[in-house]
Automatic annotation (TrEMBL), chains A, B, C, D:
GTP-binding recorded as keyword: no
Protein name (Swiss-Prot/TrEMBL): Phosphoribosyltransferase
Species annotation: Hyperthermus butylicus (strain DSM 5456 / JCM 9403 / PLM1-5)
Lineage: Archaea, Thermoproteota, Thermoprotei, Desulfurococcales, Pyrodictiaceae
Gene Ontology MF, one: glycosyltransferase activity
Keywords: Glycosyltransferase, Transferase
Length: 206, 206, 206, 206
């Protein structure tokens, strides 16, 4: 992990698909242990979608909806704050709603999601994330485990490679070691992302 | 695969997460080879969500939306037809839209999705699926490969186990062999699904 | 107004279309006097829609959206509370939003609407109603006038006739006098509503 | 009507609120005469909203939704075409849906609205407009009457005044005569619109 220009060594936690599946199965078991009968699963865009989809399979809940939360700095404001950019359009009145995200880091996303969804008149809202950071101001009702490391989810690999290479000067080989992913696949998605951003900026010029 | 009470031996194609990732990377590469610059990715609920999320990572497209299509038999009708149960609420006017599903089987889902989204005035709609069945009446613009087997996606494992055990009388061990998944994990999600449906029917009694 | 079985004589305030137009023009002038530049008008379903549409004409704002608020009693609760039954699906981030209703009575509808819409990250939310009741716990930013009477809006005539005749035993002639509407038109919409509810209950029997 | 710089004298049809109410009552009666039991009323934004709201009162249907259709010229296209800019988010599967607009002129708006809503799997869709133009390529299922004049609806007064004064050089007095509205009210909403557009362009400069 040498070569990372960071004040102190960052610890990475690459998460395998197997850990994602076992984490979701673990959460499903915890939920069932409370005798809770989930009616609707809401996946937070974009981090929560894949665990939400797996929980839908494990819990046999086929009513799913999306809720998108993005962080923006408002006009004249200094700090970014979470904003609802796509409201849920599934009826959840008097229903038990499970809101799913991949990680609760600051905890702001889930806090705003729950406050927002309370206005729909659900019977109950519970939240689940695969991981929770120790400093999170919000504790999800259900989670798989706690970690203070930089989590690399399977759905963030390309994003992570771009960030580690472009912003931290790491090599493909170093990223391969950190993520536990093969050099070939890391190179492949790195090149795909680069080509996509080139296409995108060319298109922006028209 | 003996023991399956089916007119003719069903061939199964269990898909690993590695194949999902490589299939999505393959699709991303095909899209970029056409110099197409995708603005918005629309994931079809519930099958298309996980490949849509991976393509969002590989293509660097962070605007995603959901479109839910379900099959229903209308009043007085004999055949099921695809119905939009959650419309897209992302603005795609004059945008290039990539619609993603896991498989194009009959082809009806993608056909209705494209017809529906055309009304939003997009600049262009293209479609992608991991797999396509040879008999599909609709050919996605981009796909990973063709197969006539019963595909078992990683996000359908619990659903598949329940179906193979309950409706076809297979044992956990047989399902483990078919899916290439460990007996332990198959048993675990099978028990979770069973417990969930028990909770659910109990709740239904109140 | 004799014959109304009510503890104390109810005072009615029938509102003419002319008063609706002048009230909306008055609100538009008040808004402009503050140099506020409205980007989006949100009409609360179902009371706010007609004034919202007129304000859209007077202020030249052609971006409008709907927000539906209904009152329900939750499971195990004694009091009804306002619930969002249709969220706004127009993007209002960093926009000036004008939320419109016909009257602020308890004030609960506008309170929940504003709290809900704050999550979308607007630049500013202001509210307007034609009338406000003296006991309303919420004062709209802009309103035409205050009254403690039972307001009869032009879009509530059929509802009002049904209620006054069926629940209070008034005659068509008495309702005509109260509303200032012709006996013929009152009778016409009363018969329409009755026929509609008969059709509706017949349909419910199949 | 002298002074209008138009190839041939335009005939105007100003519609009073009384005519709006009687037109909507007429439509409600026609619908009930067919024994149709409407479940959901969809108002087309922005023209259809006020008649939709009145029909909701007359028919006693309290489930309403919005559908916005706007005309745009696509990239590289010569003619404008109707585009869905806000999809309906009310569930209408197996329901009888009444789609309402103020006028069917070219007929394109209702055609696209019906085609779009068919994808939601309704039991039946019927359409209603107050007026229909003789050349409309689409005949609504229910309408009040036919006219080839330039219709001035009560919710288009300010828009109409601005257009007749700015683009056709008419005076406030001429517009007053055409619309049958008092000079005072015409002047009032004309000044409001002008002030609003000044505020708006000032705001655009920041």
């Amino acid at each position: 992990m040498t070569g990372i220009p960071h004040p102190q060594p960052t610890r990475f936690k690459p998460v395998s698909w197997r850990e994602v599946e076992e984490g979701c199965a673990h959460i499903a078991e915890k939920i069932l242990a409370t005798n809770l009968n989930v009616d609707v699963i809401v996946g937070i865009l974009r981090g929560g979608w894949i665990p939400a989809r797996l929980l839908s399979d494990y819990l046999g809940v086929d009513t799913m909806g999306a809720l998108e939360v993005k962080f923006y700095r408002g006009v004249g404001e200094t700090a970014e704050k979470p904003v609802i950019t796509q409201p849920l359009i599934v009826n959840v009145r008097d229903k038990v709603v499970l809101v799913v995200d991949d990680v609760s880091d600051t905890g702001k996303t889930l806090t705003v999601a729950v406050n927002f969804l309370m206005h729909y008149g659900p019977r109950k809202i519970v939240t689940a994330t695969l991981y929770v950071k120790p400093w999170s101001m919000y504790r999800p009702d259900f989670y798989h485990s706690e970690t203070d490391a930089w989590i690399i989810f399977p759905w963030d690999k390309a994003e992570t490679v771009v960030e580690l290479v472009a912003k931290r000067g790491l090599s493909i080989e170093e990223v391969s070691k950190i993520t536990g992913e093969s050099i070939d696949f890391i190179r492949r998605i790195f090149e795909t992302r680069n080509k996509a951003s080139t296409t995108s900026s060319r298109a922006g010029q028209d």
